[in-house]
Amino acid sequence: MKIAIAGAGVGGLAAATLLARAGHGVEVFDQFDTPAPVGSGLMLQETGLAVLGAMGLRRAAEARGAPIHRLFGRSIPSGRTVLDVRFTALREDLCAVGIQRSALFDLLHASALEAGAQFSGRVDVVAVDGVSGHVIEQGGKQHGPFDMVIDAMGANSPLTSGAATMLPFGALWASVDWDKAGPFDAHALEQRYRKARQMTGMMPSGAPHEGAAPTATYFWSLESGAYEDWRAQGLAAWRTEAEMLWPETAAVVAGLDEETLTFARYRHRTWPRPVEGRLVHIGDSWHATSPQLGQGANMALLDAYALCQALAAEPEDLPRALEAYLGQRSLHVQLYQAMSFLFTPVYQSRGSVLPALRDWVASPLSRIPPAPAVLAALVSGSVGRPLRRLDLV
Ligand SMILES: Cc1cc2nc3c(=O)[nH]c(=O)nc-3n(C[C@H](O)[C@H](O)[C@H](O)COP(=O)(O)OP(=O)(O)OC[C@H]3O[C@@H](n4cnc5c(N)ncnc54)[C@H](O)[C@@H]3O)c2cc1C
User: Are 64 and 26 in contact (CB under 8 A)?
Assistant: First the structure.
């Protein structure tokens, strides 16, 4: 088939690799001049790692990233442990990998090029005709027709996004040198919370490129509406606040400024029509959410893999293949969208009731078996058994 992929992010590049390897003619369009990664470090879970394994990229990703065995969070000022997820509670050898987005991007981009995918940069896609299979860019220029068009344009895809889907909280994030960061657990994502209004975190994120020094990703949650005030307020006031919430981050915070801190806004949306004629949505364009559960990149990889598998099983019948793709992915997507929607306000919202329940009820209960294993399953992305459905275990 002749296939267009709009968006050279995690899902788009994985789909480009798999489809080009399967012998399809693949053209990838992105708004950027040359494809480039945007965004912070992220956590690859067993789900995403299994897909990378099937693509022959898992070892390289693990070598670039940092193994993460535990997610740990304290509420301030009480000091209570309110999050403690250990992957070994589910399986002895289970862990996640913190990785810089640029490292993951390099691996996927190189494999897509090697597989023969073509790249067209500086194409700002504004519409897709799902009947004729044309990709339409800003200014009206049309590309195609294609037998299939994949929307992998992420959370801000012009085909599926609307202002109403914006979540109230986003986050400032920055990459920092691990060696200069301070005394943190090299194998844990750590967080501190003040109620659910403030959350700060550090995640080991490996080396951005071969031979580079190890990094961490620093997060500071912020209401989207408060971003301009934060800028106007000046960094000194913020640094004091950040050090009060987590004194051990003082060295990190002292080294950050408006240039190194990037503000990310989050959306929550499950697009109701993931398949429309020849147009199919994968990744965040289908199911955007806050990164609280850290599943988005992993889900994009699963979508790309499921789509390629469905096309291989039904090479002569596109509608049936796309139906099979939906059959593979819908349950897992619905489960995680629902859980993410429920969990996000527990960690990022203005109210006092949810964080109080979190600290005084949910947290003690989460230590009673089988809760530790259930939490590890939830965070590793395995609820709904997506890997079994795709024959990846
Ligand atoms: C701060 C932060 C932390 C996160 N942490 C995690 C984590 O720990 N674990 C995890 O799994 N996920 C995490 N995520 C979510 C994860 O980044 C996304 O779910 C994932 O990148 C989605 O992949 P995608 O392929 O759908 O889209 P993206 O990777 O966002 O790629 C979209 C691509 O489309 C291109 N594009 C967009 N619009 C257009 C257009 N109009 N025309 C042409 N091209 C276009 C963009 O340039 C980009 O290349 C995090 C997200 C953020 C913001």
Answer: no
